[in-house]
Amino acid sequence: MTLPYPAKDDALVLRFWGVRGSTPVSGPETAEFGGNTPCLEIRCGDRLFVIDAGSGLNAFGRSCRESLPQDIDLLFSHLHLDHTAGLPFFKPAVMNCGHTIHTYCGNLDGASAQDALDRLFSPPLFPVTLDVLPCTFKHHGFKAGESLTFADGIRVDTILLDHPQGSTGYRFDYGGKRLCVISDIEHGTNWPDPELCRFVEGADLLVYDGMFTEGEYPCCKGWGHSTWQKGVELAKGAGVKALGIIHLHPAHSDVQLRKVEAEMQAEMPTAFIARERQSIEVGRPLIGLAEPPMLALARRA
């Protein structure tokens, strides 16, 4: 992967490998924004984090496997199928390269993801168990709201989100920049939520769940997802500099999403809808939004 500009050692870089919600989609009508389910690559300098193991994890592993560290930190927002289905197809897991994959899960009241993943990836639901793969899994549980501190001193802050069975939001502060990933979430009546505003306050980039249109949401209330309008309200209320929408509805075509993006940018010029394989160095000036969104910040490989 190459950025359209040189990344520095203190750069905070995000790359989208899967931006759809619920189920993967394919076909010419979704080619621009992409059809894989959630997977985000985050680089704090040379330090790698991965958020979620949706079907986009497969493409990430194939593209980056030569440069991946031996220890890979995989942070789950939660364990629904669209966020876990890519795990047994992750190249570092299936290639005999000696990788250790550390999973972190914060929505199970302190329990790790191990029991849930062992149930999911076993017959008759899946032909093999994860323990037969030529890698080592180490599972870590925590309670959303706690901070995660890693051996190199990097801290990742977390927050519990409103979603069926819960979900975890993540905040990365690195090199003087702030990135917040808030998905999957349903907005409440007291919006923007004061606690969430404090969590994302001043972020250089907020990645937010905008699965539904305002017209669709009333029929899907309680499903644990939000709208781009609520993302803009949160961003403005918290002084966020830029907003990226993910967890795109599987039935929304490129034509529809481009229209939504134009409407959103009329409200917040530094907002955009994420596209698969976009790379963004968080905190760089947002220019070029009148052309293909985020032209100066994000390119498809």
From TrEMBL:
Gene source species: Methylorubrum aminovorans
Protein name as catalogued: Ribonuclease BN
Residue ranges constituting the Metallo-beta-lactamase domain according to the UniProt record: 36-223
InterPro entries: Metallo-B-lactamas, RibonucZ/Hydroxyglut_hydro
Gene: rbn_4
Highest taxon, organism lineage: Bacteria
